[in-house]
Specification:
The protein is α+β, with helices and mostly antiparallel strands and about 90 residues long. The chain contains two helices and three strands; from the N terminus they run βαββα. A three-stranded antiparallel beta sheet has the order 1-3-2. Strand 2 and strand 3 form a beta hairpin. Helix 1 runs antiparallel to helix 2. The longest helix is centred in the C-terminal third of the chain and has 20 residues. The relative contact order is 0.27.
Length: about 90
């Protein structure tokens, strides 16, 4: 029986999505939580001045993570929508 070679759990070269955060108020905590959901190794964080940061979230090259990444992306987008409707800083 031949074993199927799996892809390494490494970030892809193209981001799955990116989010712009307002770092004032609760925005910094929201950004930190989202990086925690996705894990730092699969994120690229860029400062866009004193009050804003952009975070690019990268998917794994291994397709077995796709369902889990879809769920985490759903969590992030839901929290961003909730933060906007509550008038909180962050997105």
């Amino acid at each position: 029986m031949a074993m199927r070679a799996s892809l390494p759990n490494e970030p892809s070269s193209v981001p799955a999505f990116a989010v712009l955060y307002d770092a004032r108020g609760g925005g910094w905590e929201l950004a930190k939580r989202h990086v925690g959901y996705w894990k730092r190794r699969f994120c690229d964080i860029e400062s866009l001045g004193e009050n804003h940061i952009a975070i690019a979230f990268y998917a794994s090259r291994d397709p077995k993570w796709q369902m889990w990444e879809a769920r985490r992306k759903e969590w992030i987008l839901r929290e961003l929508a909730s933060a906007k409707t509550k008038g909180k800083a962050g997105a």
